[in-house]
Amino acid sequence: MQITIREPGSAITHFIGMMMAVFAAVPLLIKAATASGSAAFTAMAVFMLSMILLYGASATYHSLTVSDKVLRIFRKIDHMMIFVLIAGSYTPVCLIVLGGPLGYTLLAVVWGIALFGILIKALWITCPKWFSSTIYIAMGWVCLWVFGPLWNTLPKSAFLWLLAGGVIYTVGGVIYALKLPIFNAKHAYFGSHEIFHLFVMGGSICHFIFMYRYVL
């Protein structure tokens, strides 16, 4: 039986991302459970689960060859998971690094934005790419609000990984929003969207290293 993948480049990149996240979750959660206790384990579990869901939803959406009605549902889920990943990435920082009223306030803000974004995608999946990217990027950089406390709490080297992840995600978001023709001219299965996928994976790797080395 022949298996047809609708968008091979996008599907394969994020299938690889999903498998990397699954395998990476094991040492991170073991370290969280043994070194930092149940609260840290829960926060890191949310972080890794959000990553696995993002890459799993994306790989599934780009793989399916189904009716337009069904595909629209999976497209919504794919886009919703971006908000989940961003909020999931904030969760360990809010609960472990910051803690207290400031950490819980930031946690409520980012998950509130995530729920707002999920609602937008549920009701308006055809919204312009620039609109979605603006929300993604703005949500990602809400951390500037707590830059001072983070700077005073974390080792300075931690900011290299935290900042690198943020910048890589942002560049990927810009590429996604602009969808520059130069990236799509010569490669039918590898264009601007697939490049965006690679930037997302790069940002995830940076933030995983940040979590493993500095947050726990």
From TrEMBL:
The membrane topology noted for this protein in its Swiss-Prot or TrEMBL record is: Multi-pass membrane protein
A cellular component annotation (GO) from this entry: plasma membrane
**InterPro entries in the cross-refs:** AdipoR/HlyIII-related (IPR004254), Hy-lIII (IPR005744)
Q: Where does Zn(2+) bind?
A: 62, 193, 197
Compartments (UniProt record): Cell membrane
Q: Per the record's keyword annotation, is Metal-binding included, yes or no?
A: yes
According to the record, the segments passing through the membrane are 12-33, 39-59, 80-98, 104-123, 135-152, 158-183, 195-215
Q: Example GO molecular function term?
A: metal ion binding
Similarity-based family: Belongs to the UPF0073 (Hly-III) family.
PANTHER family, per database record:
ADIPOR/PROGESTIN RECEPTOR-RELATED (PTHR20855), LD03007P (PTHR20855:SF3)
Instruction: Provide the protein name.
Output: Hemolysin III
Organism per entry: Kineothrix alysoides
